[in-house]
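Internal tracking record. Fields below are filled automatically when a chain is submitted to the structure queue. Please do not edit lines marked as system-generated. If the sequence contains nonstandard residues, flag them in the REMARKS field before resubmitting.
Queue: standard
Priority: normal
Entity type: single polypeptide chain
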Amino acid sequence: MIKTNYRLFLTSLSSLTFSLCLLLVACEKKADSGSASAGVKKPTIALIMKSLANEFFKTMGEGAKKHHVANPDKYDLIVNGIKNESDVSAQVDIVEQMMSRGVDAIVIAPADSKALIPILKRANDSGVLIINIDNKLDADILASLNLLLPFVGPDNRDGARMVGDVVAKQLQANDEVAIIEGITTTFNAIQRRMGFEDAMKAGGIKVVTTQSGYWEMEKANNVASAMLNEHKNLKALLCANDSMALGAVAAVRAAGLEGKVLVAGFDNISAVQPMIRSGEMIATADQHGDQLAAFGIQAALDILAGAETPEDKQTVVDLITKESLGQ
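SYSTEM-GENERATED OUTPUT FOLLOWS
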């Protein structure tokens, strides 16, 4: 009797064990099915900008965040920037940090068109997709490294030429002007200087001096003050971004030359719009920084999803004057 009961116990135990095994297998299959239905892990995209003290890049960051809010299920976003426009080493450090965090793509507005290429090549070689926005990387160096990094941004030369044309129409042939350019090793600074020069040449205007304001208001203020002191017949200061234009406006005020020296800029940050309406600035250009970030992120998403690496994408740049702003 005891042996019979023991056999029944073993039989029941064996059946229970088998049932538990079937249950575990079913659970595993369900878990696997759930993982498959959840799809592939969302990619992480890092936006790396230049100086966050510049309103233009704050706007760019806001544009990126808005794009992410509209597409939360498609990717995760990390937004970075540096303190000073010229702090290339800080941008290099950020790229290295993003590589360590394992991001899938980096969308970058480089602080320097040449110095950032080595670290971006390392990132690209490690499997990180790189999208270049705003300031174009040096094409010759990229070609020598057989490195294809798509660029998303405006024609800076054409944008500066449009601004310069407005200035030239207010001047007479042989009038003297000065250019306050950005960091001279950056592609967009070179292009904007050339655009200003194109417009002045077409109008018969003399560019008597060109100096860098390093994209920053205070530095540009010092440069503009020195220019006004040295060149007494200056009729205009052409600035390669609006932060520098703000510094130039302050220098014109300090010299008591309001209404006598025109100031132009580039970027259409909100701080210059009252000055354009009042006439303290004559024109600027809007390259739509918020859209630049969104276009760069979308290009990254398309490539990560399997699309071919696109050709460079030229974005819109608009001329901004008192008339275009309205009252």
